[in-house]
Write a structure and sequence with these properties.
- The two termini are about 40 Å apart.
- α3 packs antiparallel against α5 (about 85-115).
- The chain has one domain (about 5-160).
- About 70% of the residues lie in helices and about 0% in strands.
- It contains 7 helices and no strands.
- Keywords: Membrane, Transmembrane, Transmembrane helix.
């Protein structure tokens, strides 16, 4: 397979995954992964509550695997078109992604533990601090989104000089 075809295939995977998974996915996964308000009032014991919160863990792992698709595309793109400057930026993306994944998982898991239908203090009040994690997550995700978008745009663009491909209207006027 040619390099251009491989780059095009990566672009076909990268752009939809970036927009659907990163921009729309958080809303869907948040609704699916946390203990919902309908479930909370039915939980009466600490064990039931912990089981419900722990039941969200597979969804959190799946969520982070799906979110990693654009990062993986960037790594493959860099293998096709190696550039040390881009490689450093991709490493930064990977680090930011890891921090965002941990913050997001703590927030979603913690919000599951904070939800108690009867106001019973099942767990340490420390879990209530997780309500502030979206602010930290946003502070990490904004630079991550900008960096991933700019790298994806750079990798998706043609490397050749489009001006050289243009037809000079003065030369064909005979």
């Amino acid at each position: 397979m040619s390099t251009l075809a491989a780059r095009a295939l990566l672009a076909v995977v990268f752009w939809p995954s970036l927009f659907f998974f990163w921009f729309l996915g958080p809303f869907v996964f948040f609704l699916l992964s946390t203990t919902s308000s309908e479930v909370c009032p039915r939980l009466e014991t600490r064990a039931e509550f912990l089981d419900a919160a722990n039941g969200t863990l597979p969804m959190l792992v799946l969520q982070n695997l799906i979110y990693a698709v654009p990062i993986v595309c960037l790594v493959f793109w860099n293998r096709l078109l190696p550039d040390p400057a881009r490689a450093n930026r991709i490493v930064t993306c990977i680090k930011l992604f890891a921090v965002a994944a941990v913050l997001g998982a703590l927030w979603e898991y913690g919000s599951s533990l904070v939800c108690d239908g009867y106001g019973q203090p099942f767990f340490s009040p420390v879990w209530q601090i997780t309500s502030y994690l979206p602010i930290a997550d946003l502070a990490v995700n904004i630079p991550l989104y900008i960096l991933v978008f700019s790298l994806g745009r750079t990798f998706s663009m043609r490397e050749d000089d489009p001006a050289a491909d243009a037809v000079d209207p003065g030369r064909n006027a005979s």
